[in-house]
Amino acid sequence: MKRSRHQQTIVIKLGTSSIVDEKTHEPLLPILTLIVDTAFKLRKNGHRVVIVSSGAIGVGLQRMEVDKRPKHLAQLQALAAIGQCRLMSLWDSLFGHLSQPIAQILLTRNDIADRTRYLNAQNTVNTLLDMGVIPIVNENDTLAVSEIKFGDNDTLSAITAAMVHADLLFLMTDVDCLYDKNPRTNADAKPIEIVEDFSVLEADVSSAGSSLGTGGMSTKIIAAKLGTLAGVTTIITRSSNPGNILGIVRYLHTQKVSSSSSVSDSDDQRSQHGEPSL
């Protein structure tokens, strides 16, 4: 199917902390509902949308009433198997209210490293997009061992964005943009609106993620670097306000910002008016 010149391919990555409450492990339905609404509106505007969704282990913890993330691989894989079913059921239910079809894509690093499998995955995802389906991608945690894991879904989202030749990659997190310091512990932290030198950032960011997830800001910078190298504009923005995505997409389209830039949404008010900080 031929793409219109106004159509964009957009990848939205959600970490575990955006999907599951860190203490209760309950799904964060208000955020998920907003994400679904945003993705649906993007589809209605003619864009192709891919969601990279973490959260299988977190949802598995809630289902099995386990308090803490276990350390043993077999236990993690079992929880991932349990949680992935419930996670996809949740996505399907939310999108089903809007009559929006979705599809599950589970990948390991071997699927990307092997050219035949990579091309097969690429063809499948592109066919789904051409059909108007929203693919929901996650790492196949049930089968992946340390040697074939991506390590985190930030990296997976960048690889997915490159695989589908995405125009935009949104890394949704619990802060509104990239900062020069941790804004939770440094009141003087300043937003970084455009990244030009990744080496400076990589030396001065925290690698800590949530207790349920595996990522942190450092993994997002690595993902942004990978995405930029593939020609994908990468944006870090707050998951609790996914409606910003709509304004950013409109703004970047009208401003014709180069797709090789990495930008941050650091001004919610401007984003709501269709003008992210650049």
Automatic annotation (TrEMBL):
Q: One GO CC annotation, please?
A: cytosol
Q: Example GO molecular function term? A: ATP binding
Q: Which Gene3D superfamilies match?
A: Acetylglutamate kinase-like (3.40.1160.10)
Q: What is the lineage of its organism?
A: Eukaryota, Metazoa, Ecdysozoa, Arthropoda, Hexapoda
Q: What InterPro entries would the database entry show? A: AceGlu_kinase-like_sf, Asp/Glu/Uridylate_kinase, G5K_ProB, Glu/AcGlu_kinase, Glu_5kinase, Glu_5kinase/COase_Synthase, Glutamate_5-kinase_CS
Query: Which Pfam family, just one, is annotated for this protein?
Result: AA_kinase
Q: Where is the Aspartate/glutamate/uridylate kinase domain?
A: 9-225
- Composition bias of kind Basic and acidic residues appears in 267-278
Which UniProt keyword terms apply here? Amino-acid biosynthesis, ATP-binding, Kinase, Nucleotide-binding, Proline biosynthesis, Transferase
Tell me the GO BP annotations in alphabetical order.
Answer: amino acid biosynthetic process
- What's this protein's name? Aspartate/glutamate/uridylate kinase domain-containing protein
KW Transferase (keyword) present: yes
Which parts of the sequence are annotated with region: Disordered? 258-278
